[in-house]
Specification:
- This is Putrescine transporter PotE.
- It is a multi-pass membrane protein.
- It is found in: Cell membrane.
- It is a single chain.
- The protein is mostly helical and 494 residues long.
- The protein has a single domain, classed as Up-down Bundle (Amino acid/polyamine transporter I).
- The chain is 73% helix and 1% strand.
- It contains 20 helices and 2 strands.
- It has a two-stranded antiparallel ribbon with strand order 1-2.
- Strand 1 and strand 2 form a beta hairpin.
- Helix 4 packs across helix 14, helix 5 packs antiparallel against helix 14 and helix 7 runs antiparallel to helix 17.
């Protein structure tokens, strides 16, 4: 999903002097096949890391099933997105679809399309804070092994230091220009899959995996599927889709496949199967190796004790360093994507023109600095939560954005399939017949049930802070959009 985000930011309505580029210059070339589309999506499994502990706390071993159900939901939604990608080839990503459909009408429709883009931005912007806190927690486990004098340094300080150092370095590096998002995607896939695969597979060969840790802890003892349990489960599923439905990348690249009619379903099906296996397998491996209690004790960084158990202290250091490198690459990708998303929304008239400015290398430095400050604030705000639940709390807040982005995009799919303005457009790849009703049901699942569930889960897990933060950030779009519209009217009357 992160690569989808970058692709949307970098390809949708690129600016030139005096306005927007014409449609020909934004047309995407059909230059990849299903294998390349699949490779770009292979960094997705690492997105499970912030949620392993939270899922185990609330669902115990049944978290394994929850991940599987979430990936299956991804199959349903991504078929719709695959069709949209080939129907609107210049509208890249979920926000692009919503703006192409709703933005073609009234000001209200344009606001809805813009809000979808803002929601998608908020879904991925906090990746910087989430993975900085994860890096700090993993560092706190390995630094004392070779630097004992730093054994007393808290994970909070390491997270803040990691965030400041990484964000500053990336701003300085990207000020000189940024490389292709696709290249980053390939690197991300390699660096994320290797350590994740090695750490989670090894326990099966070393004898550290015990099936009774799963079968003996299937559900929490007090679980009875009452209203409270159902709401928690809906909240978990809303959180899960932030990660497990992220392989929409394979669908969103529809306009760039050489043969979308065959490449899209191949990439979707194979990528979905890989994600189905990886999400289920990783949670199962961690649960079977550490047990539910072991995961809860190491909620933020459960792969650290796994790596130490299997490889010993120094082997664990090597594996975790590789994992941290992958996290830095995710931060880099999300940082670039977030900044270009704000820049793109400013160019489209959905955010103030201040954010449309770039430096001589074409980098939106103003947006990058604002995003860095915002994420340092998130680290400071959530690093001190009880039970080290900072990453999960930030993810829960940002998942609110993903709920709205998915819901609005699925409504856009239904509108595109029924509105006379869109229903006769060419669709090189088509979802199964009647899929508009399935998509509509998923839209309501997101905008009603998941929304209620994640608010309840947030309140149960970390208080009202994450929910309040999420709604405040989403609501900020309204005055920013009003400001942008006022600017447009002033320029038009000048």
């Amino acid at each position: 999903m992160i690569e989808v985000f970058v692709r949307y930011c970098c390809n949708y309505n690129k600016p030139i002097k005096g306005g927007f580029v014409d449609s020909d210059s934004t047309s995407l070339q059909r230059s990849i096949d299903w294998k390349q589309g699949l490779a770009i999506a292979l960094g997705v499994p690492l997105l499970i890391l912030p949620s392993i502990g939270t899922f185990a706390i609330y669902l115990w071993a049944f978290a394994i099933v929850a991940w599987g159900l979430s990936v299956l939901q991804g199959f349903i939604q991504n078929l719709a997105y695959g069709e949209m990608a080939t129907t609107f080839p210049n509208a890249s990503g979920l926000p692009g679809f919503a703006q192409a459909v709703f933005g073609a009408g009234t000001q209200t429709g344009k606001f809805i399309g813009g809000f979808s883009a803002w929601s998608y931005w908020f879904a991925w912007n906090p990746v910087l804070a989430i993975y900085s806190i994860l890096i700090g927690d993993y560092l706190s486990g390995i630094v004392p092994m070779f630097l004992p004098e730093f054994a007393g340094v808290s994970p909070v300080l390491l997270s803040i230091a990691a965030g400041i150092i990484i964000f500053t370095a990336l701003i300085l590096i990207n000020a000189r220009g940024v490389s292709s998002g696709a290249t980053v995607g390939y690197i991300l896939a390699v660096f994320s899959l290797i350590p994740l695969f090695v750490i989670t597979v090894a326990p099966f060969f070393t004898g550290n995996f015990h099936m009774e840790n799963i079968t003996g802890s299937w559900f929490p003892t007090e679980w009875n599927w009452g209203l409270s349990n159902v709401l928690i489960f809906l909240g978990i599923m809303a959180t899960a889709q932030w990660s497990a439905c992220a392989w929409e990348t394979a669908a969103i690249y529809g306009p760039e496949y050489k043969n979308p009619k065959s490449d899209v379903p191949k990439a979707l099906f194979i990528c979905g199967l890989i994600c189905l296996f990886s999400y289920v397998f990783v949670q199962a491996s961690v649960t079977g190796t550490l047990g539910v209690e072991g995961i809860i004790e190491q909620r933020v960084s459960p792969l650290l004790p796994m790596a130490a158990m299997v490889f010993g202290d120094w082997g664990a250091i090597v594996a975790i360093v590789m994992l941290i490198a992958a996290m830095v690459l995710i931060i880099q990708t999300a940082f670039n994507g977030s900044a270009r998303s704000m820049h793109s929304m400013a160019i489209e008239g959905n955010l103030p023109s201040y954010l449309a400015k770039v430096n001589s290398k074409g980098t939106p430095m103003r947006a990058m600095i604002i995003i860095a400050i915002f994420n340092i604030f998130l680290i400071l705000l959530f690093s001190f939560l009880e039970a080290s639940s900072g990453p999960a709390a930030i993810l829960s807040a940002s998942a609110l954005g993903y709920v709205f982005a998915n819901g609005i995009s699925l409504l856009a799919y239904y509108k595109a399939a029924t509105d006379p303005k869109f229903k006769d457009l060419e669709r090189p790849f088509k979802a199964p017949k009647g899929w508009k009703y399935v998509a509509l049901a998923c839209a309501f699942l997101n905008l009603i049930f998941y929304l209620v569930g994640i608010v309840y889960l947030n309140a149960t897990d970390a208080g009202w802070g994450p929910t309040l933060l999420g709604f405040v950030v989403l609501a900020v779009f309204a005055p920013l959009w009003w400001w942008a519209q006022k600017e447009k009217k002033s320029k038009a009357s000048a």
